Amino acid sequence: MVAYHTPVLLQESVDGLNINPAGTYVDCTFGGGGHSREILSRLGAKGRLVAFDQDAEALANRPDDNRLTLVHGNFKYLTNYLRFEGAPKVDGILADLGVSGHHFDSETRGFSFRFDSPLDMRMNQQADFSAQDIVNNYSVDQLASIFRMYGELDNAGRVAWLIDGYRKNRKIKTVGELKEAIAQVTPQKAATKFLAKVFQALRIEVNHEMDALREMLEQTAEVIKPGGKLVVITYHSLEDRLVKNYMKNGKFDGQAEKDLYGNVNVPFKMENHKVIVADSRELDENSRSRSAKLRIAERI
Question: What residues does 276 pair with on adjacent strands?
Fold first, then answer.
């Protein structure tokens, strides 16, 4: 197996699925296969797991287990893939939305500001659209919008303006060139936090992460059997807000719908109104767990 990723909140998230040994489950984000292996360890001979990953490099982590179907595709096509694989209804879905340690540690994929690699950030390397396209082709207003929305930067307009000024003289192709372009507004004492927000915004836009998450969540009510579980691990407030609202209200904005008699009509019942976070031991062993939030809901 390729060294790839340390799974976050492993026991807590798989416990949340309340696995039936003969059931069918989905791991939306296979990655290094940590969560999938734990699910498989709790399944019996008749159990089944369908896992998704759009990154071809993750496929090398596939365990030799005939109960596992590993789909090379985006989880936003959840319903269609499950029908194709003969599993239209499942007993539970787990999605760990974090970027794998493999991506952050790669010196060639452009996910990390620690390496002067090509500015890429594509989860699916077959896609045509990369972070270079954003920083070189988006208007100043478009850049400011994604930095404000996905990076939650207070000075998003200034960042966009500096990128625009830099690219007028030189196309931005590498991580180093992007960092050089925004050096004037990168705070010395908080550079890591600032750059993390910039790179997060670009990564979310490149991979259409928020749209894919919305599409996947909306399909879970259709494919999860009554009594089945939806388990999601998020890493930033934008994701967590979507997941919380959908689990609580069955929609991403506004209040839950009600019938003519005033009864609330929602597909899920939240099991943990207070998010589950990593304990001190996991925080010490895996720093990437510090921003993880786990939410669990049951299909009504």
Answer: 294
Residues in the chain: 300
Torsions phi, psi of 65, nearest 5? -145, 115
pLDDT of the residue at 1:
40
Q: Which residue has the tokens 């599409």?
A: 215
Domain end position, chosen among 207, 226, 253: 207
Instruction: State whether 202 and 223 are in the same domain.
Output: no
Mean pLDDT along residues 253-266: 83
Both 195 and 229 in one domain: the answer is no
3-state secondary structure of 219: helix
Residue 264, beta-bridge partner list:
258
Task: Look at residue 147 and tell me if it is in a domain.
Answer: yes
Give the confidence band of 126 by pLDDT, cuts at 50, 70, 90. Answer: confident
List of residues 6+ apart from 168 with CB closer than 8 A:
none
pTM over 0.90? The answer is: yes
Q: Which of 47, 54, 49, 51 is nearest to 28 (CA)?
A: 51
Establish if 114 belongs to a structural domain. Answer: no
Per-residue model confidence as pLDDT tens digits over 18-49: 999 999 999 999 999 999 999 999 999 999 99
Containing domain of residue 260, as a range? 10-101+209-299
Q: Is residue 56 a contact partner of residue 72, using CB atoms and an 8 Å limit?
A: yes
Mean pLDDT in residue range 258-275: 88
First CA to last CA across the chain, in angstroms?
A: 38
* Residues 130 and 191 grouped into a single domain: yes
Where does residue 20 fall: left (phi above 0), alpha (psi -120 to 50 degrees), or beta otherwise? Answer: beta
Q: How far apart are alpha carbons 206 and 177 in whole angstroms?
A: 18
Structure tokens at 177: 């060139």
Cβ-Cβ contacts under 8 Å for 257 (sequence gap 6 or more): 250, 251, 264, 265, 266
Q: Which domain CATH number covers 78?
A: 3.40.50.150
